[in-house]
Amino acid sequence: MTEQQIFALLLGEAAMAVWGDMPRDIQEALFETAMRDREDLRHGLACLLHERHPRTQHPAKPA
Prior knowledge:
Elements: H1 3-18, H2 24-34, H3 39-52
């Protein structure tokens, strides 16, 4: 593994650790950047983040 790959993993782990404390616009920007050209992983990452940080769940749609 290259040094750049190690740094990327460390930054990713740090982002996941503080995800719930980030403003929603930052969360969305990071998520969209991470999922660019990775539609097959989009749902899985969204589920993981919502499970770890319930505050990040989108509010229920009005009935």
